[in-house]
Amino acid sequence: MRFKFSIIALLLEAVFIVLFGLFVEYDTENINSYLYFKDVHVMIFIGFGFLMTFLKKYGFTSLGINMLIAAFGLQWGTLMQGFLHRGEGEKIFVKIKSMINADFSTATALISFGAVLGKTNPAQMLLLTLLEITVFAGNEYLVTEIFKATDIGASMTIHAFGAYFGLAVTFILYRPGLKNKHKNEESTYHSDIFAMIGTLFLWLFWPSFNSAIAEENERIKIIINTYYALAACAVTTFALSSLLDERGKFSMVLIQNATLAGGVAVGTCADLTIHPFVAMGIGNIAGIISVLGFRFLTPVLASKLKIQDTCGVHNLHGLPGILGGIAGIIVTAVQSETKKGVELTAGKQAAALGSTIGIALVGGALTGAILKLPIWGQVSDQNCFDDSAYWEVPEEEKLYEINSNNYDEHSRFEAVM
């Protein structure tokens, strides 16, 4: 990895710097939007990062590579979305909204990272981020500029897209050697606590995520709808977690993930004319399908379809993202609504949902085929889910052995006395 990863990373960063020099200029905007940017930024770097620290020997990679993907991806996202949305011959004018959208583009790669967590190397993740954000930007342009669909909280364009892109990648990168659970593919008490930190950050800041790029007069509606959707989803998740356990106990996996599904699902229609009780209903349904997905669907995907979804992104982002798209279709079919002078229709929303899933699956499959090439030096099955393959890690086991030996000698001395 010493030369392969470093050369790729430095070369791509040099390209980014040149492109920024040629095409990017400052723009001015009300600094009040920076408050929303900060919330989204925290979600990307802390929320997503800590959410994936549940694996007992993979915390360095979960946090570290999450940071790498986000820092790398936000630069490429700025360029890709800028090229597509700028006028002919114009510069890319960067403002706070551009920075928020850049963070949004990295969210798709971070979601996909969850599907392949523990089974890829850093060089592969750089390439995945580069390719996925390119495809994401094209699909986002198609949904917003061609279909003229609404997706203010990006249930479809970020969450469903990132999930199905990642699932297609992990399908192509299927490892028969991991069919039976790897010894490191499990959590510990403390690793689950760290993952719960990520959940809490995401849960608290999700109203900002859904409302960050909305018009000022619509933000309060989005915040309220997201707020109550998350609350209803959390209560439902706790209830079902206990109900589905034979001893009535809670599952930390479900609490870490399914409690967030309401924020995903309400995103598409959060700015439409729905009442808080409708948002709560969407959150409730999202919690149900997410919990059931973790409990019953994930094992089927792994055993029957050869989709090894490490973090269960299908249940947190994929299924709730589809639910959000369907909710948008229903709401626009029931009542006519206009956004920015464009009439929203169920047909436009359906086209947006269908294209997003289709493009994500095709793009993910092609990306998986590229990542599977032998030149990237894929980690062996034995070294999956282990930080020591790519990180300098503390030699805790040796320290433990020394302490154990000291304890044994002390015990033998007392026994002799």
TrEMBL record:
Q: Which UniProt keywords apply?
A: Ammonia transport, Glycoprotein, Membrane, Transmembrane, Transmembrane helix, Transport
GO BP terms, alphabetized: ammonium homeostasis
User: What chemistry does it catalyse, as a reaction equation?
Assistant: NH4(+)(in) = NH4(+)(out); CO2(out) = CO2(in); methylamine(out) = methylamine(in)
User: What GO MF terms are annotated?
Assistant: ammonium channel activity
What Pfam families does the record tag this protein with?
Ammonium_transp
Localization recorded for this chain is: Membrane
In the UniProt record, which is one GO cellular component term?
plasma membrane
Instruction: List residues traversing the bilayer.
Output: 6-24, 36-54, 60-79, 100-117, 154-173, 193-214, 226-244, 277-297, 317-338, 350-371
Please name the InterPro entries in this protein's record: Ammonium/urea_transptr (IPR029020), NH4_transpt_AmtB-like_dom (IPR024041), RhesusRHD (IPR002229)
Q: What's its membrane topology?
A: Multi-pass membrane protein
Domain named Ammonium transporter AmtB-like: which ranges?
Answer: 11-390
Looking up Gene3D superfamilies in the UniProt record yields: Ammonium transporter AmtB like domains
Q: Where is the signal peptide?
A: none
**Assigned protein family:** Belongs to the ammonium transporter (TC 2.A.49) family. Rh subfamily.
Subunit field text:
Homodimer. Heterotrimer; a RHCE monomer interacts with a RHAG homodimer. Component of the ankyrin-1 complex in the erythrocyte, composed of ANK1, RHCE, RHAG, SLC4A1, EPB42, GYPA, GYPB and AQP1. Interacts with GYPB (via the N-terminal); this interaction bridges the (RHAG)2(RHCE) heterotrimer with the SLC4A1 Band 3 I dimer complexed with GYPA.
What is the name of this protein? Ammonium transporter Rh type A
